[in-house]
C-alpha cells in the first residue's frame, strides 16, 4: 500500500506501520510531499514521525480508533457493499432535519440513530443533516472542535457505522447532509502545525489563528480541505455539506476558496451522476455567496438565513437582546421583509454591529430555495445559557404558528431534532475535554460569558458534567403523549401540505405578498392560491385575506372560511392555511 504525506518543513519522515518502520522518500513530482510503500490492510495502524520526533496521526487519516492523539488506521472503502441504489436527492423542494448523533438517542451512536430514521420518514422530511462527525477529544461534544477532517468520531461508530447510516437513510428515501468545519480545528489533538503551514497569523478568528487559505503554502491547505469535502460526498455517498461559519474563512486570493470548492463539488456531481450541494452558514447577508459562478457569484448552492429566524424569534418571544435588537423594534415588519426579500439586512443600519450591513438580494434572479428557513437550530438553542428550546416558554399554539411560518414560507425549511414534538428536553452546551486545563478554561469562559448578561454562575450548566449531555438527549417517550403528540401531528400535516400544494414549493420570492398588524400581532401572506394566517395574540383576530371563496386546508384550532368581506377569524395563538376555491 502506498503512503504519502505533505510535510514541507521536514528533513526526514519515517512511516511507522503495523509495527515496522521505514523511511519515506521525497516525491520528485510534488514539492513537500513524502511517499513510500508498506504492507498494510484495512485496520492496520500507522503514523508518521518527522525528524525523529513522536509518531503522529496522518493529517488525511480515514480513521482514528484511539482518538485524535492515537495512531491512524487504514480504511479500505471498497469493503463496504452498498445496499441502496441511490440516484441522489437535490435541494429544491427539500425539507431538512438537523440531527446531533450524540443526543438523538441515549446510546449516542450512528447505528442507534439509524434505527430511528423511520420517524423522519413518517414526519415527511427529505434530508437528515448530521452535525459534525470528525474525531474530537472524549466521547461527547457538539463536534465543532473536531480534528482529522477525513475521519469519523470513533465513539459514534467510526467509518463503517456512517456507511451503514447513509445506506439505511437512502433505503428509506432520505438524503444525508453532513456539517463540516473548515474555519478552525480543535485545540486538542490538532497535530497539523507539525506537518506544515495549515494555519496563518495573517488573519485571526474567534478560535485563534486562521486556516491558511491565502498565505504561502495555502495551495496544499486548500487542496486538503477540498479533498476532505469530496471524500465525504464520494466515499460515504453523502448528498450535501453544510459549511460552518464561512464568514470566518479569510481568503484574499482572486479565486475564493468557496468558489473553488463549489466548482469541485459540481464536477464530482457530474462524475457520479447524482445531485450534490453545499449549504453555507454565513452572517454576511451577501447574495454573492449563493449566486451561481456563471453570474460572478461564489456558486454555493444555499445558505442558512438567520435573518428569517431572528425576525420570527422576536415576534414569538419579544426578546430584544444582542443581535435580536435590530429585529425587535418591529418584528412583524421584519418578518414580512424577510418573507418577501430574503434578507432583512440589505444595506440597512445594524445597531448590533454599529454599521450598515448586508446587500440586497435580487428576487427576480435568486430562487428562495437557496435560503434555509427555521425557527430553531443547534446554535439558536444550544448557545442560550440553559439550552432552552422554544417549547420551554411558548404555548403549543405559538409553537404551531412557528411551524406554520417555517413550513409554508418560500425558503427551504429546516427543523431541529425534537422540535416536531415540542421536546421538553433542553439542548445544552456540553464537552468532554480530556485536557483538564482546557476543560476548566471552557467551563470558566462559558460562565463568564453569560454572567455578563445577568446569569448567575450556578444557573449555567457545567459543559464537562456528564449530566449536561444526558439532559440534552431526546426523550422518545414524549411523542406518544400530549401535548407532544398533537404538535407532532401538526408538523406531519404541514410537511404533507407543503408537498401536496405546488404553490407552497414555488421558490419565487416575487410572488409572496404579505400583510400584517404589528399591534394586533397577526401576519398573513399569499403564495399563489394559498393563504396563510398566523395570530400570535392571545385574543382572536379578524384578518383580511381578500378572498371569499376559500377552503381551509389546515388549522391549529377550528377556523371558518372567510366571510363575505374576505375576513377570516383566527383564534388566539393559532394559525390557518387556506386555498382559493
Concise structural overview:
This protein has 581 residues and is of the alpha/beta class.
Topology, element by element:
Elements: E1 2-6, E2 13-17, E3 20-23, E4 25-26, E5 33-37, E6 45-50, E7 55-56, E8 72-73, E9 96-99, H1 101-104, H2 110-114, H3 117-123, E10 127-130, H4 158-171, E11 175-180, H5 192-195, E12 199-205, E13 208-211, H6 218-235, E14 240-243, H7 257-272, E15 277-280, E16 302-304, H8 306-317, H9 325-328, H10 331-341, E17 346-350, E18 355-358, E19 371-373, H11 378-382, H12 396-408, E20 412-416, H13 436-451, H14 466-472, H15 484-500, E21 512-517, E22 522-527, E23 530-535, E24 541-544, E25 550-555, E26 567-570, E27 574-580
Parallel strand pairs: 9-10, 9-20, 10-11, 11-14, 14-15, 15-16, 16-19, 19-20
Antiparallel strand pairs: 1-5, 2-3, 2-6, 4-5, 6-7, 6-8, 12-13, 17-18, 21-22, 22-23, 23-27, 24-26, 25-27
Helix pairs in contact: 6-7, 8-10, 12-15
Main location: cytoplasm
Keywords: Carbohydrate metabolism, Cytoplasm, Glycosidase, Hydrolase
Subcellular location: Cytoplasm
Give your account of this protein's structure:
- The chain has 581 residues and is α/β, with parallel strands linked by helices.
- Helices cover 26% and strands 21% of the residues.
- The strands form seven sheets. The protein has an eight-stranded parallel barrel with strand order 9-10-11-14-15-16-19-20, surrounded by five helices. Strands 2, 3, 6, 7 and 8 form a five-stranded antiparallel beta sheet that branches.
- Helix 6 (218-235) packs parallel to helix 7 (257-272), helix 8 packs antiparallel against helix 10 and helix 12 runs parallel beside helix 15 (484-500).
- 49% of the residues are buried.
- The model has no long low-confidence stretch (mean pLDDT 96).
- Keywords: Carbohydrate metabolism, Cytoplasm, Glycosidase, Hydrolase.
- Pathway: Glycan biosynthesis; trehalose biosynthesis.
- Residues 52-74 are annotated as: Disordered.
